[in-house]
Amino acid sequence: MARKTTTAQMTMATIFAWAVGLIMFFPILWTALAAFKTESDAYSLPENWWSTPWTTENFGIVQERSNYLRYILNTTIIAVVSTLLGLVLAIPAAWSMAFQPEDRASVSWPGYVWLVIILGAMAAAAAIAYSVGWAMSARPLLGLLLIVIFSLPIAAWVWTRRTGDKLLWMLSTKMMPPAGALIPIYLIFNRNGLVFKDWGWIDLSEWNLIDTFAGMIPLMMLLNLPIVIWMLYTYFKEIPFGILEAARMDGAGLWQELSSVLAPMALPGIASTLLLNVILSWNEAFWTLNLTNKYAAPLSFFISEYSSPEGQFWAKLSAASLMAIAPIMVLGWFSQRQLVRGLTFGAVK
Amino acid sequence: MATRQGQALGRLAVAPAVAALAAWSLVPLALAFYYAFLHYKLDDPDNTFFAKGANFYYFVTDPFFAKDLFNTVALVLLVLVITVVGGVLLGILLDRPFWGRGIVRVLVISPFFIMPTVSALVWKNLMMHPVYGFFAHMWRSVGLTPIDWFGSHPLMSVGIVVGWQWLPFATLILLTALQSLDEEQKDAAEMDGAGKLDFFRHIMLPHLMRPITVVILIETIFLLNVFAEIKVTSVGGIAGNLTYLVFSKLNDDNNVGEAAAGGLIAVVLANIVSMFLVRLIGRNLEA
To answer: B52-286: which CATH architecture?
Structure first.
């Protein structure tokens, strides 16, 4: 027996829900209105938002003054290329963890052995660094070597874990706060980092990744890679294993299994992962504000230029904001479900 | 079952991703450790030396540290209260049948897709401006003195903006959870004569406990890192959080060593939260 809802109740709920929905949407609506007003009218919006004339001049002014098209092109390049690069890494990884899962660690040394190896490597790296006097600018190879000594045992440990642990470790890399990575990344990008300066046999005097696509695209890719892998993994997991088994029984080789059985079934999942990832990198604002300022600057930077303007600027701010958010908001409307999935890591079904 | 050939290929296929993520997470961490023990200023690079724990000491004793640590926690709590309470209410509302549900849902979800710089500047100017803002008009129309939001209450203002951005996320997740509360349970409760409030307290709330935990943990990880909203509204001096402090140590003081030390403190703080989240998700993975 389904619960009955009377028309009166339905009407009440409708009015109430629409009111709440409009309140949530109001700042966006307000921005959209102000974008089509003249500067002085934008400031008197609440009194006469309907009676003042409408205009599209703001969009032209924004384009003319700050070259909007360049920024949206930059944003699109960074978002799309980093997403595609991420998929190249994530699809094999997610396929492997979903369909060739390992229930046991492939190297079964007890935990304390690993711990001794990892801590020992760290201590050795610190000891070498201390004994050569910390300033490693003159010894770039040594700096690189120390990083390898530091990170290789941990990477090896992760690689030999069982699938579930590997997944959780990947997830935990997403939780690293950007404040922790800001200094090293800034210095690596900048050639100022003591470790990577003066190679001697390679000329790195022109080394610069700040404000370049070569820096921003890999960075954005790595930033979202854990989410991409997780999402793909949960999609791949839903593909019934029996179908793969049947194909194998029928003598399908690995390549056939991948191309004619898996690929068609995985395509919708890959598409929604792509969509969510484009949204996430489109709206990223920590790294773009810190590492770009002109040539590779995306829309989030473009808008931040309006934080200290001169004179009246609300209509132009609104027009620029509308142009920056409209494309991705529409994409977002179509990806509500994927959003829950991608951002909760499967913790809510 | 998995073949030997497939197993080997599988191990090979996951290697690039593991290597990339290991490099991404470990190299910056290793370098941050290195820099955190150096006296190193960008404007005076020749005077660089091993500084023992001085950077940590100066970072923690900086008067901004205590204030910004408080701001960090206050901002997270404020936004969590807004989003969890608001999310439960909105979730219940959107779970009911009414006309135009799809459209209202889209309206409620939309703020999540707005980039932080846009929402911060739109709220600071069009909504919260002390003279021309929409709130100022509303306040005046009922005879109150308008509030200078970002001028006098910067932390609360940033909290409202960030809360507006994250409310859709909480709503969406709690709504998804509510929809899985099956009809039969609702009918059974109704037939047993359970009132609306009883139903909420004894059936709905327990059912929502887990998704609420997930919302709290995930949001906390992102909220510890709020940055753009503080920077573009220029309230970093008063309402800055730890992320902003690290940024300003690098940007304003050129002090790499102290910024790196502050970054490591932020890492420790975030790790405390993420440990709980990873454990929760791990338990779900087993089930």
So the answer is: Orthogonal Bundle (1.10)
